[in-house]
Write a sequence for this structure.
């Protein structure tokens, strides 16, 4: 079990029309009770964020309490405003109630050619907007099978975090997501995941000092499901999960969160 406060985030990706998004958001918030020891985040498609945020607040209000579920974006541009057709700035995400933003997800690295330098610019922009970036890194199957996992992940961490000071690194969440495990049903073993999480924490220590590194939360992502979450949560350097497919089902997502809540 990790010494840090766990954080479980749902990446809805490009799924769900308005009605479904509203129901899912309310269901997650209403079922979030009894888990004061874990941070919960949902990351809807950008067009749904305003309504999802309203739904979460309304659901919490029916129980006379503040929301437990925070909202995150799935991506952001690296500038606050301007002629960037089709893009959303981190300031816009913050303005509609986001506290987090996923950056450098492998789907964006692959499908949208986002390099570490692009991710680095976005991390800086998100921090400037007061958001908590969830910075994703992870190796492909070919890279793992050729024994390059450590080099690839270390390179992505160094590149994505280039130039950040300890105070900025302390504000990040890192998500280790082996590409071969995302959406495939093939989860990394707890030992495989723990080994890479320990590597990342060591690297953060060299970049920002051991005390800072000890406080940074590192999520695992890649086919996390209710039936494999507990063994991942038992690892000392796995501080939560970034959940794709399973986050589209409120009971399943909450079951994963409960595994991390201890
Ligand atoms: C993800 O896209 O971040 C992810 C981990 O997806 P899945 O849980 O579906 O593998």
């Amino acid at each position: 079990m990790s010494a840090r406060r766990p954080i479980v985030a749902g990446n809805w990706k490009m799924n769900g029309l308005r009605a479904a998004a509203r129901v899912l958001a309310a269901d997650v918030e209403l079922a979030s009770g009894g888990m004061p020891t874990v941070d919960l985040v949902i990351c809807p498609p950008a067009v749904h964020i305003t309504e999802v945020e309203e739904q979460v607040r309304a659901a919490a209000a029916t129980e006379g309490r503040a929301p437990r579920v925070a909202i995150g974006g799935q991506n952001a541009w690296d500038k606050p405003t301007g002629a960037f057709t089709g893009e959303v700035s981190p300031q816009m995400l913050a303005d509609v109630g986001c506290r987090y933003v996923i950056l450098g997800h492998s789907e964006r690295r692959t499908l949208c050619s986002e390099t570490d330098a692009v991710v680095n610019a976005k991390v800086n922009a998100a921090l400037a907007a007061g958001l908590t970036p969830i910075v994703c890194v992870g190796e492909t199957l070919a890279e793992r099978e050729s024994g390059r996992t450590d080099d690839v992940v270390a390179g992505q961490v160094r590149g994505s975090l280039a130039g950040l000071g300890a105070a900025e690194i302390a504000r990040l969440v890192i998500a280790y997501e082996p590409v071969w495990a995302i959406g495939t049903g093939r989860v990394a073993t707890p030992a495989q995941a723990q080994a890479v999480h320990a590597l990342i924490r060591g690297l953060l220590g060299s970049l920002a000092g051991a005390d800072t590194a000890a406080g940074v939360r590192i999520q695992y992502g890649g086919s996390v499901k209710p039936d494999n979450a507990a063994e991942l949560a038992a690892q000392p350097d796995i501080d939560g999960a970034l959940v794709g497919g399973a986050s589209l089902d409120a009971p399943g997502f909450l079951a994963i969160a409960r595994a991390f809540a201890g």
User: Anything to note?
Assistant: The domain at 7-97+115-261 is CATH 3.20.20.70 (TIM Barrel). The pocket of phosphoenolpyruvate is lined by residues 11, 177, 182-183, 221-224, 242-246 (CB under 6 Å).
